[in-house]
Amino acid sequence: MLSVSPPPSLPLCHHHNRSLIHHRNHRLRVTIRSSSSSSIQEAVEEKTSNEKNLLSSELYSATPFPSIKAAKRVVLVRHGESTWNEEGRIQGSSDFSVLTKKGEAQAETSRQMLIDDSFDVCFSSPLIRSKRTAEIIWGSRKVNMITDSDLREIDLYSFQGLLKHEGKAKFGAAFRQWQVDAANFNIDGHFPVRELWGRARNCWNKILAHESRSVLVVAHNAVNQALVATAIGLGTEYFRILLQSNCGVSVLDFAPRVDGGDGSPYICLNRLNQTPNSPVAAGSSAGRKISKRIILVSHGTTQGGTEATFSNSGNQPMSMLGIIQSQKTAELLLDLNVSTIVSSPKNACVEMATTISRVQEAADCLGADCVPRCVEMKQIKELDVRDILQLSNKDATEVPPLQPGFLNRFEDEALSALWEQSGKAWQSLLNELSDESKSEKIVVAVGDPAIHIALMGHCLNLTEDWMGSFHLDAGSISVLDFPDGPTGRGTIRCINYTAHLGRWSIPITRSTIDDEEF
User: Annotated catalytic residue: which of 15, 16, 153, 351?
Assistant: First the structure.
């Protein structure tokens, strides 16, 4: 069972959100928030393809969001499976499909996941498939839901209603561009993805202006992608990179400025696409078959528990809770044939990696495979970040490491060193994935949440300034897919997935009664 509360106060020091203005080595980096406009689109259209991608995220992070007075947590849910999902028909913003029986069951599972929630308000798309999902999750609450047309699915104009093979046959090159270059896709005189990003930005203005601290938003695949991307300052080139499955749950934490000013809030992606079913189940990524995958496993809780800090955690082994988390993670990964497990030399990481390996090798005895599995185990020193994080000041290292946005407390020197070392670790993981002798390969990397956040940044081709925009918990998994191989662009299937931990999972929400600081 999962429940969702607004966040604890995000640990932000003088760096505030590192997605703001940075002076680094006497250079100015501007990476604050922004909305789309016609002038932006015209500027983008004048650039080359590479320049467009670079410019897009800079521009979509250029105008601040509305200020807030108190911490706010926003939970995004995609609708359950619809009849047109089942048929493989292009839906867009059309309103002719309804939930299938499977979709209704998915929505009910999401309701159970969020049954102990403390939501103040629910925003919903007006389209039937989304509104019905919201009604199931919202249940018997007395507060009326708010429907917002800006939360409708992406407008796909002449594509809407076509089966995918019909779209390919009828529109040829345009359909191909929709598949491979959606950010610049043009149909009927419109740029649908650019329009969507502008709509998502408008939605945030309304959601943040609402006097609520815990918000449920039920909408669609593409618009939820746009909401996540615009919240953390990513442009249209990230369409289809941050996946949203049917009834997948994503969580964003917003915190007011520490100086009490009217500037943009601090924003952290707490989790992405926590689904009712297993996140490692076989399937496709944005419609493409998956043959290469990296699974980032954060080591279990260490001795000292949640009160441990970076300065005293040292090289502690896992606690009993950490051992349970490792066993639950190994059980989840039993559905996959893991090729290689790499880990930090840190005790807790080695313990967790060993547990996963032993369960994999016993797959035949456990009935998960017909033959024993052979798993290669390695230790990579670049995954060990203990010494790097000690470079920061006392105020940062005395903070419990798994509060949302915890990396924002660290000084530039430590974060730059973390980013540089994580780049080497990332290249090592890609090298592991590049084994040409295996058509399918799954690499599990076990490390500290801090290094995994940096690795996700490399996967998304970001800079170190974005590291404070992500969060991971002990025992969580994050799944990175490479549908075009390790030399291609990675997609994020999920971030900070903890549902597999059962009763020991990290709650999405909790009651806000008598909880002044969240």
Answer: 153
User: Is residue 510, in this structure, part of any structural domain at all?
Assistant: no
pLDDT digits (tens, 9 = 90+) for 101-111: 999 999 999 99
Answer yes or no: do 397 and 442 share one domain: yes
Give catalytic status of residue 153 as yes or no.
yes
Active site residue 45: no
* Catalytic choice (79, 220, 299, 452): 79
**Residue 2 C-beta-side C-alpha neighbours within 13 Å:** 25
Same domain (yes/no): 162, 188: yes
Burial of residue 277, with CB atoms counted within 10 A of its CB: 0-12 exposed, 13-18 middle, 19 or more buried? middle
Residues 415 and 433 in one domain: yes
Q: Is the pTM of this model over 0.85?
A: yes
**Cα(209)–Cα(396) distance, rounded to whole angstroms?**
31
Q: Is 85 annotated as a binding residue?
A: yes
The reply to whether 82 sits in an annotated binding site is: yes
202 is in an annotated binding site: no
Give pLDDT tens digits for 441-485: 999 999 999 999 999 999 999 999 999 999 999 999 999 999 999
Q: Is 79 annotated as a binding residue?
A: yes
